[in-house]
Amino acid sequence: MTGSRWLRWTFVLGFALGGFFDGILLHHILQWHHLLSLVPGMTDLRLQILWDGYFHALMYALAVLALWGLWRGCKQAPAAGATLGTLLAGFGAWHVIDALLSHWLLGIHRIRLDSAVPLAWDLAWLLAFGLVPIVLGWLALRRAGPGGPPPAALVLVLGLVATGAGIWAAQPPAGQPVTAIVFAPGIQPEAALARAGLADARVIWTDPLSQVTWARLESGNPWKLYLAGALMVSGAGMPAGCFSWARA
What we know:
transmembrane; DUF2243_membrane; DUF2243 domain-containing protein
């Protein structure tokens, strides 16, 4: 593997990390939008969450593919400064493409849907997390020289960051009193809870349109709900991220 091929994989990893950053911050923590928030007819919360999950699965696949490529060619890697510069460029490229394609051409979502001036938020986000990282990456590439951490160590650190981001995103927020569950059509929440061995759980509210049920699980293993007809369970690690941060 040549240095140029190494940098291409680094760019892909930076691109995937940009997607992780957007998903964790905007979908989970701030909850400003979903991937398809502005698509006509996409009013079903279950479908919104499902497509958020598809998006994160794609970012995971890109990150794993990039890390595999980097690990194979770590002995032929260029200087660490070039790697970091390319990583920043990939991170910024994600936000540029997202702004041009998702915000303005396709119009499937905006950065902040509740803003009176959504374009201002789009432009600020594009500048801070798109153009600035690209410029910083370009400067790092120009100044790249020998030295710095060994390439294998750098790949290991980047892999741990990507893995840690996914594990962190799968955790429920602190102090969340209830569990959100999406059941398959036709599944009765009370019966499914009983089949999963969670007979002491209390159903708080169910939305028949989106199939989302809010329940207080006093004990038991929420993973068993998947065997009883659940499609998604917050805090049970699947899907990684978006639904685990659903708020009651």
